[in-house]
Design a protein that fits this description.
The complex is a heterodimer of chains A (171) and B (123).
Chain A: H1 17-21, E1 24-27, E2 33-36, E3 40-46, E4 50-56, E5 61-65, H2 83-97, E6 105-110, H3 125-139, E7 144-149, E8 155-160, E9 166-170
Parallel strand pairs in A: 1-3, 6-7
Antiparallel strand pairs in A: 2-5, 3-8, 4-5, 4-6, 8-9
Chain B: E1 5-9, H1 13-23, E2 29-33, H2 36-46, E3 50-53, H3 62-71, E4 80-84, H4 89-97, E5 102-105, H5 110-121
Parallel strand pairs in B: 1-2, 1-3, 3-4, 4-5
Helix pairs in contact in B: 2-3
The chains are: A alpha+beta (171), B alpha/beta (123).
Chain lengths: 171, 123
Amino acid sequence: MHPSSKSISDRRASSPTDEASKRASAYLHPGQLFVSADSHAVTTILGSCVAVCLWDPVTRIGGINHFLLPTFSGAGIASPRFGNIAVKELLDQLAQLGGQKRNLLAKLFGGACVLEAFRQRQHHLGMQNIEVARELLQSESIPLVGHDVGGQRGRKLIFHTDDGAAWVKVL
Amino acid sequence: MTARKILLVDDSETILQMEQMILAKESYELLVARDGAEGLARALECNPDLILMDVVMPRMGGFEALRQLRGNQRTRTVPVVMVTTKAEAESIETGYASGCNDYIVKPIDSIELIAKVRDLLGD
């Protein structure tokens, strides 16, 4: 994975390969979340979707979600495919494992607009997903310490649940 | 106002019917193709505003069809959403590397499909 000259955030210069090999690996599908008290390297791929990464640096408990749509409005099934449900479930599951909310730190990834014609539009789906995540983190008073959001390309993300390290490869 | 055209490319009649049923609630003109080669031909013939493309199909798969769409001046910028059961990282990476604009993993969720279609059509 390579850092990008357009980086606005948390793209890391070194390869995750060596560090990831010390951890169990997991792949996160869209609409799901992953939480662990053990060291995991979680991979997910984001287009207009957004992933919120949370970890407690004291207990080294962490987790990540991957949501597709900003807000559950009552139609269909309330699932982590929606940002407001995905963030709440991530917080709940971290708390169940012993993560302390007062310690939590956050990183935010994704929300691309991959269509050139609509890039100037302020409220494309990716942007709505980013806004919801930011609002929810702010309302929970969780510091956002890293992000790589928006832009024109999909992303492959690897997140370490224990120390919050993250790598992004632009696709 | 002319209805916008969406080309549905899938070798499964069930999936095609499901997509048609979900999108019938919106005022789109829906076109159908049953493999990548037919999808490519229909795209050149009909100039769709958006394409929903399966990955694994006979004759020509979705990734190859996507590469050919992106290599043709007339279809280079048409938004393409891959709609597939292939949810593993390598497959999704290949999709983005081949030029797809978004990804939907089957089973299709109607709310997700409509939200992504509206977004890519600028609604």
